[in-house]
């Protein structure tokens, strides 16, 4: 468990805060940022959330007033530097903060990391890390409570969404008594899990559904059935009018194949780079595999960005997975 007293002191001594998370933010990132921002505002602090990527459409319910900035759109690096404390949530990797790295390099603000991932870089920050936490949302809730605050219904819903999604709705091995205790408290604060689930999974678009069908039809198994993998090309998004966030959870669908020990999905980016998401349900440490490509994450869930072309990136990833499986 984290000793939050140093961060409590930092918060009480400062007035202006910027909160940042990783590129292509997921619900753990957005929910944790919003919950933390709400708590700091309750203390009378000036808070801005500035991310390297826009909030995905399907997570807009977590930020109903569209208060989150994307760096470079309505806010500059210089403006982002105008703060007392810069808090980085749900990552501690230079690659993951992307363009916000320019702010971190230039700012005179005190830098703070709140994270639960194993992979880590030196961001020159005061770190509050606990890799045993199932989600960044767990840490944010514990910090808010350490401040002596009780989340309101909006903050509780945001944090619940963070935890629920990052644990696969409580089915991943990371879930423990601590996780469920957090959930119990959040539901006690008024969270309605059925409403959150409906917002996340029962408002799909036809384009998203068609994309899932196309990508799942490509699933292949290799290495004696130990690996299940698939891919998404830029032309898939264009032809189906789908959004990059529509690929969420597809890698986990691959892992449902009986006998599969790990799964990957490769997603071609507009830039020509290839995003790879890794999942494992055995002792295979996919964070180590991701780290060989400059990425990282958890032992059983990680990611990396590779240079293109797509076929070359795919071959490199498959070879790395084969070597990791052989070494087990």
Automatic annotation (TrEMBL):
Task: Name one matching Pfam family.
Answer: DHHA1
Indicate the enzyme's highest-level EC class: hydrolase
Question: Which domain of life, per UniProt?
Answer: Bacteria
* Domain (DHHA1) ranges: 232-325
EC number assigned by the record:
3.1.-.-
Alphabetically, the GO molecular function entries are: hydrolase activity; nucleic acid binding
**Which InterPro entries did the record assign?**
DDH_dom (IPR001667), DHH_sf (IPR038763), DHHA1_dom (IPR003156), Oligoribo/pAp-PDE_c-di-AMP_PDE (IPR051319)
Keywords from the UniProt entry: Hydrolase
Q: What residues does the DDH domain cover?
A: 17-147
Q: Which PANTHER family match?
A: BIFUNCTIONAL OLIGORIBONUCLEASE AND PAP PHOSPHATASE NRNA (PTHR47618)
Q: What is this protein called?
A: NanoRNase/pAp phosphatase
| Native source organism of the sequence | Caulifigura coniformis
């Amino acid at each position: 468990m984290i000793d939050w007293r140093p961060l409590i002191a930092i918060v009480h001594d400062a007035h202006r805060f910027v909160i940042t998370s990783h590129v292509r933010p997921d619900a753990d990132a957005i929910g944790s940022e919003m919950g933390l921002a709400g708590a700091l505002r309750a203390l009378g602090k000036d808070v801005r959330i500035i991310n390297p990527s826009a909030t995905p459409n399907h997570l807009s319910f977590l930020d109903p007033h569209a208060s989150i900035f994307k760096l470079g759109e309505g806010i500059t690096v210089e403006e982002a530097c105008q703060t007392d404390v810069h808090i980085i949530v749900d990552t501690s990797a230079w690659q993951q903060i992307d363009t916000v790295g320019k702010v971190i390099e230039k700012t005179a603000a005190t830098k703070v990391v709140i994270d639960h991932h194993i992979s880590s870089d030196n961001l020159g920050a005061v770190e509050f890390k606990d890799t045993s936490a199932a989600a960044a949302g767990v840490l944010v809730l514990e910090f808010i409570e350490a401040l002596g605050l009780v989340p309101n219904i909006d903050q509780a819903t945001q944090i619940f969404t963070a935890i629920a999604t990052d644990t696969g709705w409580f089915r991943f091995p990371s879930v423990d008594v601590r996780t469920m205790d957090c959930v119990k408290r959040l539901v006690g604060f008024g969270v309605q899990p059925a409403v959150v689930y409906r917002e996340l999974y029962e408002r799909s678009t036809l384009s998203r559904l068609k994309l899932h069908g196309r990508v799942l039809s490509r699933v292949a198994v290799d290495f004696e059935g130990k690996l299940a993998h698939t891919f998404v090309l830029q032309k898939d998004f264009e032809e189906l009018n789908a959004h990059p966030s529509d690929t969420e959870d597809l890698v986990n669908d691959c892992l449902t194949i009986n006998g599969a020990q790990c799964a990957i999905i490769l997603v071609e980016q507009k830039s020509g780079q290839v995003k790879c998401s890794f999942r494992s349900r055995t002792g295979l440490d996919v964070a180590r595999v991701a780290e060989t490509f400059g990425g990282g994450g958890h032992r059983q869930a990680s990611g990396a960005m590779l240079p293109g072309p797509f076929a070359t990136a795919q071959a490199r990833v498959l070879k790395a997975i084969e070597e990791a499986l052989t070494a087990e």
